[in-house]
Design brief:
Layout: E1 5-11, H1 16-28, E2 32-39, H2 46-52, E3 57-59, H3 68-80, E4 86-89, H4 98-103, E5 108-112, H5 124-131, E6 135-142, E7 152-159, H6 166-189, E8 193-196, E9 199-202
Parallel strand pairs: 1-2, 1-4, 2-3, 4-5
Antiparallel strand pairs: 5-6, 6-7, 8-9
Helix pairs in contact: 1-6
The protein binds ligand NHR and glycinamide ribonucleotide (GAR).
Length: 204
């Protein structure tokens, strides 16, 4: 087994979670290498940060493909050129087909901006406001074929305040995302994560 683990990060936009992971890896000298940052949108702002940091970037634009199956096949071929040990979804906004997800079984993580199993899918902060919950947060989970239902690695909570808007709540959650996602990726890189009976164990 290689000591250095190869990580491929998938983004669709701003890429602040990707940046948090790159910065933590660099600062803490993890035994890992960001092999590539891949976006499904050519205009994703996060691509500029990756390029500035000398990270290989690729664009596989979903709009260029006639079906989800064809897009996922092209995306998988591009990812696999970088021989990833881990695929990290960081604000990646396309639902992935079962065959794609199964190919990366046990080696693909996502961060979802809610306390799963509450509020899967899109518009999670508005869902939380509409439900009137008093705590909200973010979840890092292994990706499985059921959307936003994979084994949970870690979660962080934030309070919901009386005057919150979707934007203010999202910003409070994002600060916590930038703490827990690098932590979870580090645990994976260190070989400390295992899934038993649908639950994640974190070895000490
Ligand atoms: N794919 C599988 N199979 N399982 C998961 O758990 C996944 C996944 C793909 C993405 C991220 C997820 C999130 O954290 C994620 C988890 C996009 C959508 C969505 O509805 C839903 C959930 C997530 C990401 N996307 C629309 C679609 O039709 C497109 C929306 C857009 O382009 O803005 O794919 O929330
Ligand atoms: C983050 O809040 C992430 O949790 C969320 O989008 C934002 C991406 O920000 N992900 C999803 O909603 C996935 N459907 P970033 O691009 O700055 O990391």
């Amino acid at each position: 087994m290689r000591a250095m683990k190869n990580i491929v990060i998938l983004i669709s936009g701003r890429g602040s979670n990707m940046q948090a992971i790159v910065q933590a890896l660099t600062k803490e000298s993890w035994p890992a290498h960001i092999a590539a940052v891949i976006s499904n949108r050519a205009d994703a702002e996060g691509l500029a940060f990756a390029r500035q940091h000398g990270i290989a970037t690729e664009v596989v634009a979903n709009k260029d493909y006639a079906s989800r199956e064809q897009f996922d096949a092209a995306l998988q071929a591009t990812i696999d050129r970088f021989q990833p040990d881990l695929v990290v979804l960081a604000g990646f906004m396309r639902i992935l087909t079962a065959s794609f997800v199964e190919h990366y079984d046990g080696r693909m993580l996502n961060i979802h901006p809610s306390l799963l199993p509450n509020f899967p899918g899109l518009n999670t902060h508005q869902q939380a406001l509409d439900a009137g919950v008093k705590v909200h947060g973010a979840t890092v989970h292994f990706v499985t074929t059921t959307l936003d239902h994979g084994p949970i690695v870690t979660q962080a909570t934030v309070p919901v305040l009386a005057d919150d808007t979707e934007q203010s709540l999202a910003a409070r959650v994002l600060i916590q995302e930038h703490v827990i996602y690098p932590q979870a990726v580090r645990w994976f890189v260190e070989g400390r994560l295992s899934v038993e009976g649908g639950r994640v164990q974190i070895a000490r």
